[in-house]
Amino acid sequence: MAFVVLLLAALSGLSGCAPAFQGDKPAPDAVNGVIDLTEWPWDEEGTVPLDGEWSFRWLERGGENPVFRDTTIDMPGTWGAAEPGDGQPLDGSGYGVYRLTILHRPQTEMMAIRLPNISTAYEFYIGDRLAQSRGHPDMDAKRTIPYQAPATVHFSTDGERTELKLIIANYDHRHGGVRTSIVMGTSEQIQRLQLRHAAQELLIMGCLLMIGFYHLGLYILRRKETANAMFALLCLCVAARTGLIGEGFIVRWLHGMSWASAIRLEYVAFVTAAWAGFAYFRSMYPLEIKRIWYKAATVCGALLVLVAVVTPPSVFTSALIVNQVYVLLFSARVLVGLFVSAHRKREGAVLALIGVAGLIVTIVNDILFYNGWSRSIDLLPFGLLFLIVMNSFIISLRFSLTYERAERMSSQLLEWNSSLEERIEERTEELRRSNVTLEEAKTELERLEQSRAQLISSISHDLRTPITLLRGYLEALRDDVISEPDQRDQAIRSMLGKVEGLNFLIQDLFDLSILEARKLELSLENIPLSYWKQRISEQYSLEMQSKGIVFRCELDVGSGGDAVVAADIRQMDRVFANLLYNAIRYTPEGGEIALSLRALPERGGVEIRVADSGPGIEPADVAHIFERYYRKDKSRTSGPEGSGLGLAIAKEIVELHGGRIVVRNSESGGCVFLITLPARA
């Protein structure tokens, strides 16, 4: 279907865009109401447009004693757009008489003149004979009957001179006059030209009607697809407009249709087609074209249709620029939406973008043409036909993908049916493993509950002991058991130490609860590894040296170079304090603590390694060392009387940074903590 439409569009485009004459010789122009065709070879060059300077009489004032102004005017041209020879502008409505003298050789065969749509009533004379008329032109607006349709006039030329007179009256349209060329040729040439134009319009109308009813049928079969209804309405409206302009087939078929009804229907079809096109693309790409735009298009379109229905033609045709702005504005919005859709790789968006871009080009051409700003032809049907071709490709693409998905699903269903027993067995095994996992989780929860109970007992003991000592000191001070000044100072210092230990314990518990709830907000900075290495070395080197411990802080530049980490430096200082003080406590004098930093470019992260040469960790404790509320005498502490929460806090801080911390015993003795953090891209 898409190929057929594309072929028809190409053939129609070639015929519609062809000029009125096909030869290489340039056609002569009329000068001061005379055109010389004595040297024009009709058989070789074909038809000729009667363009140029015609004699023109313009009715300045009507009534019993009408007053005319004699001048010249360029053909083709509409009143108001074409400037007469005397330089005085014309109104869009009025009464004018055109005259042209044609000089030619005597012709033995019948000649013909092709008259286009002329706004809005005319009489055409060859010599003194009325050869053709459309409507009834009159100097009085009330007696003028408008009507538009192209016509062909056949005549014989016995002499060497033919006089043409064209009387035009327009009181109902925004622009009177002749928009396109009047063409002269032999009867056979003009007949071919007329048939070509008629075939072109009928071909376009037929394509649009067929495609419109096809999409209407799709909508009737599947009401949820409103895009099909909108596209059908777009095609049918443009088909109706095509039948009303140009050859005017609809007006000719419906003999009772007046010119006013036809022009109203044309404007209504123009606005409705624009609204339907916008609604179609909005339903296809709702994420890129918001609903507020659809509401605005609907309201504006309804107002324009109402104006075309209730006001006289002279009013709503004068407001054509408003209709054109409406079409351009919402066409541009569709174009922007499709550009965004194509950027997001929506299905069919690129093809739709190409089709709409081509349609907008033809819309701009028609706006220039109907405003008299350029000489062209009505290209909107071709633009829509091009859009339909693109839409056909989109539909074909979607159907193809739908069939592909259906075939894939069918294949999968067959595969699942053939392996159903295996899948049931697999699901049964998965359920069994899930039960085992749940049982393990239950055991783990019981262990954690026991650990919590131990924690409460431990905390109670940690609180009770310093409180008991504080109470003993206070009672001794009260009863003057401690009376010596030195003893009092020592007692007070002891009490302050116990109070400080309690503060540390309470602060650790508070910090751990915030970290577990993930309520701590990190203040991230870009920290290069080289800066981090220098910072840690400066903070701990002297203290390690004073305790007789060798401290090595190294940066492995390697292939990753000096990587950068986004970290909260204050919180990470707490992590290193817990790890390094824990290592200091269990590293004997003369031992070694090593901290190394290196980038892991293949994993997009960094690794920090803290190793000591102490006795290591009991294998039974390795799996529990980071557990919440787990405490062992020989693990985790940040000082001589630590709370036992240091490594739990360190683990929560590292995970809050998106990292991971693990521990293992080194083969050469001691333990190793490994921290991995994501590197900044």
TrEMBL record:
<keyword id="KW-0418">Kinase</keyword>
<keyword id="KW-1133">Transmembrane helix</keyword>
<dbReference type="InterPro" id="IPR003661">
    <property type="entry name" value="HisK_dim/P_dom"/>
</dbReference>
<dbReference type="Pfam" id="PF00512">
    <property type="entry name" value="HisKA"/>
</dbReference>
<feature type="transmembrane region" description="Helical">
    <location>
        <begin position="292"/>
        <end position="310"/>
    </location>
</feature>
<dbReference type="GO" id="GO:0016301">
    <property type="term" value="F:kinase activity"/>
</dbReference>
<dbReference type="Pfam" id="PF02518">
    <property type="entry name" value="HATPase_c"/>
</dbReference>
<dbReference type="InterPro" id="IPR003594">
    <property type="entry name" value="HATPase_dom"/>
</dbReference>
<feature type="signal peptide">
    <location>
        <begin position="1"/>
        <end position="20"/>
    </location>
</feature>
<keyword id="KW-0175">Coiled coil</keyword>
<dbReference type="Pfam" id="PF07695">
    <property type="entry name" value="7TMR-DISM_7TM"/>
</dbReference>
<feature type="transmembrane region" description="Helical">
    <location>
        <begin position="202"/>
        <end position="221"/>
    </location>
</feature>
<dbReference type="InterPro" id="IPR004358">
    <property type="entry name" value="Sig_transdc_His_kin-like_C"/>
</dbReference>
<keyword id="KW-0067">ATP-binding</keyword>
<feature type="transmembrane region" description="Helical">
    <location>
        <begin position="233"/>
        <end position="255"/>
    </location>
</feature>
<dbReference type="InterPro" id="IPR036890">
    <property type="entry name" value="HATPase_C_sf"/>
</dbReference>
<dbReference type="InterPro" id="IPR011623">
    <property type="entry name" value="7TMR_DISM_rcpt_extracell_dom1"/>
</dbReference>
<feature type="coiled-coil region">
    <location>
        <begin position="417"/>
        <end position="458"/>
    </location>
</feature>
<keyword id="KW-0902">Two-component regulatory system</keyword>
<dbReference type="InterPro" id="IPR036097">
    <property type="entry name" value="HisK_dim/P_sf"/>
</dbReference>
<keyword id="KW-0808">Transferase</keyword>
<keyword id="KW-0597">Phosphoprotein</keyword>
<dbReference type="InterPro" id="IPR050351">
    <property type="entry name" value="BphY/WalK/GraS-like"/>
</dbReference>
<feature type="transmembrane region" description="Helical">
    <location>
        <begin position="267"/>
        <end position="285"/>
    </location>
</feature>
<feature type="domain" description="Histidine kinase">
    <location>
        <begin position="458"/>
        <end position="681"/>
    </location>
</feature>
<keyword id="KW-0547">Nucleotide-binding</keyword>
<dbReference type="InterPro" id="IPR005467">
    <property type="entry name" value="His_kinase_dom"/>
</dbReference>
<protein>
    <recommendedName>
        <fullName>histidine kinase</fullName>
        <ecNumber>2.7.13.3</ecNumber>
    </recommendedName>
</protein>
<dbReference type="InterPro" id="IPR008979">
    <property type="entry name" value="Galactose-bd-like_sf"/>
</dbReference>
<feature type="transmembrane region" description="Helical">
    <location>
        <begin position="382"/>
        <end position="401"/>
    </location>
</feature>
<keyword id="KW-0812">Transmembrane</keyword>
<keyword id="KW-0732">Signal</keyword>
<keyword id="KW-0472">Membrane</keyword>
<feature type="transmembrane region" description="Helical">
    <location>
        <begin position="316"/>
        <end position="336"/>
    </location>
</feature>
<feature type="transmembrane region" description="Helical">
    <location>
        <begin position="348"/>
        <end position="370"/>
    </location>
</feature>
